[in-house]
Design brief:
With 473 residues, this protein is of the alpha/beta class. 41% of the residues lie in helices and 9% in strands.
Length: 473
């Protein structure tokens, strides 16, 4: 698999804007805070007073980005270097472009040098606001900035000019986290095969539940036909399946990794196992319409894996991960638990090279770690949903900046190691994780799926028109 691409080198940063507020006017501080808009790529940091700690300044910057859970007494603490790596990685992967730092006249040379390194690594537009009541104060600040390699300065003086240089306040400010997710809960659906599933749903469900289940079914049908059409004709393997599989007289599908990735993408956003069952039955119908038989475990809703023991990465969940876990590795580890639904023991085998260059899929070669020297078996393939990709990208960037890191190093090393550490990880996340609450040590359902090219007629399934995949009202 192609190794994930490294983040591109940032462009040369613009000159540092030095706003000299001789009178320490409250209007300037108010304007700086009103300018902040983390979701829009602008942050404002007021460094913690009465400390010259480098780690505290990094945590102040993380807090300005909205990642401030470290303020809790029982939260995990990050070392200085790790905290600054986190600042850099989140800046690069979340689109933070502008940063205002208040009370810059109180920053020590060591803190200013850290800001200079951060600016050089990210290309961020850095604005420093300083209180310099006398020319001597201004001269001393200028000397410290030059010593810290922040010599490219654009100085602005006077309250009105400083406020204008800060820029207009943010017009639209989100008052709080996104609302909780609203899902139409489905009752237990019939465990019929694909030929009779839709008709049995019609007989056993009321109108509202059937409408919801049928939308999922139609979406699965449309997704399967679209995926097959984009792939074009696929060549079957020459060897037929073994007897007893129920598919004698058929040829096996060749690209099993592609098929399992499709099934993971189809179900990773599913809000419940019943929604997943409807989507998969619709996908099976779509495959049958192309003379392909898609087999999945008969006890699908009792298995583990995408759509069964997963949690959709909705705006609310993504916000929770961003605010509760400032460490990129911890945030990515919990996100992976949510969107894979697999056992933590398997997920702990994730390597840096397990993520593709666009952070769209995760592949775990379990046999290469368990049976050293043996030929590799099928990889476990998972789809990374769009809202989790920045988390995985930040974790990759964080791990690459860690000293003595190689491509086959464990991405989540240290996250799942000891029970105490793992319990703290789950506690800090503040989210219910079905794969942890109901572990399934067996292989996930989509890795047990099989597909056959039919050489004989199969039970007819009525064609349906499928809408785009969306949640039920």
């Amino acid at each position: 698999m192609t190794a994930p691409a490294r983040l591109a080198a940032p462009p040369a940063p613009p000159p540092v804007t030095l706003l000299l507020d001789a009178s320490d006017d409250r209007t300037v501080h108010h304007a700086a805070h009103q300018r902040a808009h983390p979701e829009g790529g602008r942050i404002t940091t007021d460094p913690t007073p009465h400390t010259n700690s480098l780690a505290y300044l990094a945590l102040d910057l993380l807090g300005a980005m909205g990642r401030d859970s470290f303020a809790r007494p029982d939260a995990e603490r990050m070392a200085t270097d790790a905290a600054w790596r986190a600042v850099t990685c989140w800046t690069l992967t979340t689109g933070t472009k502008e940063a205002i730092v208040l009370r810059a006249h109180r920053l020590t040379p060591e803190r200013l040098r850290r800001l200079a390194v951060w600016r050089a690594e990210t290309g961020i537009r850095l604005t420093l606001i300083a209180h310099t009541p006398t020319p001597a104060d201004e001269q001393r600040l200028q000397e410290r900035l030059i010593a810290a390699r922040l010599s490219s300065l654009l100085a602005v003086r006077g309250t009105d000019a400083v406020v204008n240089a800060i820029g207009p306040p943010t017009v639209q400010r989100r008052p709080g986290p996104p609302p909780s997710d609203q899902v139409h809960l489905l009752p237990d659906l019939p465990h019929s095969d694909v030929a009779s599933f839709r008709a049995d749903c019609r007989r056993h469900l009321d109108d509202g539940d059937f409408t919801c289940a049928d939308r999922q079914y139609r979406a699965g049908y449309a997704a399967a036909r679209t995926w097959l059409a984009r792939r074009g004709p696929a060549s079957p393997l020459p060897s037929p399946p073994a007897k007893g599989t129920g598919s004698e007289g058929a040829d096996a599908w060749q690209d099993m990794e592609g098929l399992r990735l499709f099934l993971a993408r189809l179900t990773v956003s599913s809000p419940s196992p019943q929604h997943t069952l409807a989507r998969v039955r619709g996908a099976q119908a779509g495959f049958l319409s192309r003379q392909l038989r898609l087999d999945v475990p008969s006890d699908l809703t009792e298995c583990g894996g995408p759509g069964i023991t997963t949690v959709p990465i909705t705006p609310h969940v993504a916000h929770t991960l961003a605010t509760h876990l400032p460490n990129p590795l911890r945030a990515a580890a919990v996100a992976a638990l949510l969107f894979t639904g697999t056992a933590p023991g398997l997920l702990s085998m994730t390597q840096i090279t397990s993520i593709d260059e666009h952070a769209t899929r995760l592949a775990i070669d379990r046999d290469s770690r368990v049976n050293v020297g043996m030929p590799p078996g099928p990889r476990h393939i998972y789809a990374i949903p769009p809202r989790a990709r920045s988390l995985l990208a930040a974790a990759l960037a964080f791990r690459r900046r860690t000293p003595r890191t190689i491509g086959h190093f464990g991405l989540f090393a240290g996250c799942f190691g000891t029970p105490v550490r793992f319990d703290h990880l789950i506690r800090d996340a503040g989210l219910d994780i079905p794969a942890v609450r109901h572990p399934h040590p067996a292989q996930d359902w989509h890795t047990a799926a099989h597909c056959w090219h039919l050489n004989t007629a199969d039970p007819a399934v009525p064609a349906v028109r499928g809408p785009s995949l969306r949640a039920c009202p």
